[in-house]
Amino acid sequence: MTEDLEWRVLSESEKERERKGRRKSLLLCVSTFIHCHCFLPTLSTQQHTIKPLSPSHAIPTPHSKFPSDSDTQSLFFSGRAERQKLLNQKGCVVWITGLSGSGKSTLACSLSRELYSRGKLSYVLDGDNLRHGLNKDLGFKAEERTENIRRTGEVAKLFADAGLICVASLISPYRRDRDTCRSMLPDANFIEARHHEAILIVFMNMPLELCELRDPKGLYKLARAGKIKGFTGIDDPYEPPLNCEVHVPEASKAIEIKQDGDVCPTPTVMAGQVVTYLEKEGFLEH
Amino acid sequence: MTEDLEWRVLSESEKERERKGRRKSLLLCVSTFIHCHCFLPTLSTQQHTIKPLSPSHAIPTPHSKFPSDSDTQSLFFSGRAERQKLLNQKGCVVWITGLSGSGKSTLACSLSRELYSRGKLSYVLDGDNLRHGLNKDLGFKAEERTENIRRTGEVAKLFADAGLICVASLISPYRRDRDTCRSMLPDANFIEARHHEAILIVFMNMPLELCELRDPKGLYKLARAGKIKGFTGIDDPYEPPLNCEVHVPEASKAIEIKQDGDVCPTPTVMAGQVVTYLEKEGFLEH
Q1: Is B246 in CB contact (< 8 Å) with chain A?
Q2: What DSSP letter does each residue of B79-134 carry, written as one string?
Q3: Cα angle B48, B188, B168; round to 5
Q4: Which portions of the sequence form the region Disordered (chains A, B) (predicted)?
Q5: Least CB-CB distance to B154: which of A37, A78, A134?
Q6: Minimal CA–CA distance to B259: which of B211, B212, B189?
Q7: Which of A74, A98, A173, B188 is at 20 to 30 A from B198, Cα to Cα?
């Protein structure tokens, strides 16, 4: 049996525990305690102080049959707050959305580099690349595309919880899918700053003509030739983020990157816009 | 269209490109260059020197229709080597396997805390917890359980690539599934130290009787009562890692944690064993 079955049965077991009136031993309590603090750190409002360990904490318990430490303090683990302190930043997701050829990957690269130059840890999740690993079992049906976005969102959430600035770069043309990802993040809010949302949508608002002219992968040509059906911007819609359209930046974290006249910003300028935003919102300190 | 279709069509597009004799513009070359360095860092043997950026690098290109920087050096992004340098550690996966109740979660907690006390960044992936997010679409059929392990392995690989010490805690009873995860890691090997494997298997070799006595989730009771079928250790096998059995630690990274006489090691002692191993193998420095 794998841990799957454990999880399924746990709720039944817990119900039984309820019926029995919580007559469980101290051992079970301690075990549950460990589990909660270990794997559900974001659900806890308690902040733990991690004490530097010394060998004196490792007192063997020769009469115990079970792994345990005499000092319960040592059962605390390093949680999100500690990881953020270590990195001196707040974990979050920068979700870059836009047409094919709008410069998402370029921005992701530049942003990653710019953050590194400031000593900040980021990681880029790219939809295409995940296709070779985590999402390699997914095909190209509508529901599989949605699943691709969902899994990417779930992984991005884990990275944010780990304290990293996770840069997800996906066309993600539908509001529904982006909203699903956004809705994953609330319970990953920062314990110490609950007003923060942990996701920042970056909308690469570049004209279709420009993206098509750029066409780095030759996909627009194929789409125009009818060799690709359902291509975003050609015969399938791109739904721009609403919060950018209505210009209410304080309602939700979203920024728009667009041309200044007919001049596109350089990668460094684009990255600078995002970094400035992250800095202003306090993401670049713990 | 999502990025899925892009990926699928890319190979067709690339074939066409081959046929056309690589008559693509400089723009396309630069774009491909960015893409390769951005998302396939582990496939490149080249190590990049990241130069601290100054505003002078952000020179706009007013005559260009496309996002670009005049300084191609700035197209380099922060790769695995840079992230490891930032963290002063090597990204890897510590995969904890063992029976239910053998102390996997306890070790994961303790290890995470111990690493934090040394200023090292780790993240715990727990099979049960992933059930609530990434793997919530999976049921309990054999192939879905295997898929659960596979996805966890893929995510662990991403975390290792991000430079973290990823602690995956799953019963993972079958060698086949563990081998699948192990096989994912070779191309995540360290650029600067190719002799390193990026996965360390930790086998919690605790007697079934002890695990059943401990039974923190009450699952063994349910299994003995016939309420759970296919429970590892009761009516489904646990296949211990072979490399532990034959005691060839140098053949593959695997360590065994077991009782000393009838005394179990404390969490701190267990974590210490793993940390000592990681330190000895050079994972705790970049």
Answers
A1: no
A2: -HHHHHHHHTS--EEEEEEE-TTSSHHHHHHHHHHHHHHTT--EEEEEHHHHTTTT
A3: 130
A4: 51-72
A5: A134
A6: B211
A7: A74
Residues shown for chain A:
286
B254 sits in which H/E element: strand B254-258
The C-alpha atoms of residue B94 and residue B165 are separated, in whole angstroms, by 7
Q: Angle between the A26-39 and B104-117 helix axes, to the nearest 10 degrees?
A: 50
The alpha carbons of chain B give a radius of gyration, in whole angstroms, of: 23
Interface test with B, best of A77, A100, A176, A270 (most B CBs within 10 A): A77
Instruction: Please return the burial class of B43, using the count of CB atoms within 10 Å of its CB with bins 0-12, 13-18 and 19+.
Output: exposed
State the helix-helix crossing angle for B104-117 and B267-280, rounded to 10 degrees: 60
- Does the CB of B85 have a partner CB in chain A at under 8 Å? no
Asked if the interface predicted TM-score (ipTM) of this complex is over 0.90, the answer is no
- CA angle A174–A179–A185, rounded 5-degree value: 145
> In chain A, which among 183-202 make CB contacts under 8 A with chain B?
184
Count the alpha carbons within 13 Å of A265 in the hemisphere toward its beta carbon.
21
Residues 6+ apart with CB under 8 A from A184: A153, A154, A157, B133
Q: What is the pLDDT along chain A (286 residues), one digit of tens a residue?
A: 444 443 333 344 444 444 444 333 333 323 333 333 333 233 233 333 223 333 333 322 323 344 444 433 334 456 889 999 999 999 999 999 999 999 999 999 999 999 999 999 999 999 888 988 999 998 777 788 889 999 999 999 999 999 999 999 999 888 888 888 888 775 444 333 334 457 888 899 888 999 999 999 899 999 999 998 888 999 888 998 876 643 434 445 667 877 777 777 888 888 998 999 899 888 999 8
* Beta-bridge partner residues of B232: B236
Q: Is A123 helix (H, G, I), strand (E, B) or coil?
A: strand
Q: Which amino acid is at B144?
A: E
Contact partners, residue A20, CB within 8 Å, separation at least 6: none
A59 touches B at CB < 8 Å: yes
Tell me, yes or no, if B38 comes closer than 8 A to chain A by beta carbon. Answer: yes
CATH number 3.40.50.300 is the correct assignment for the domain at B84-280:
yes
- Whether residue A270 and residue B67 make contact (CB cut-off 8 A), yes or no, is yes
Query: How many Å separate Cα A178 from the centre of its chain?
Result: 12
Q: Judge whether B7 and A131 are in contact, CB under 8 Å.
A: yes
Q: Is residue B236 a contact partner of residue B195, using CB atoms and an 8 Å limit?
A: no
